[in-house]
């Protein structure tokens, strides 16, 4: 076990609308990747909810 394993991990959280000028190019690229992954997750949730809604509407139309 390294000493690094004992140190608390820094959680990089970005608040929408926050100042981007303090981030490096690498940090900005990481942020873009994180946001793209979050967009994909939200889109999957929308698709799942739409499927559930469609199934419910179809069941009650009969």
Write a concise synopsis of the structure shown.
By secondary structure, the protein is mainly alpha-helical. It has one helix at 25-61.
Number of helices: 1
- β content, as a range? under 5%
Number of DSSP-assigned strands: 0
Bulk shape: elongated
Q: What's the main sheet like? A: none
Label the structural class: mainly alpha
SSE run: H
Share of residues in helices: 55-70%
Question: What's the gyration radius in Å?
Answer: 20 Å
Extract low-pLDDT stretches.
none
Which whole number gives the mean pLDDT? 86
* CA-CA gap between termini: 63 Å
Jot down its keywords:
62 residues, mainly alpha
Question: What does this protein structure show overall?
Answer:
- The chain is mainly α.
- The chain is built from 1 helix and no strands.
- It starts with 24 loop residues before the first helix and ends with a helix.
Topology:
Layout: H1 25-61
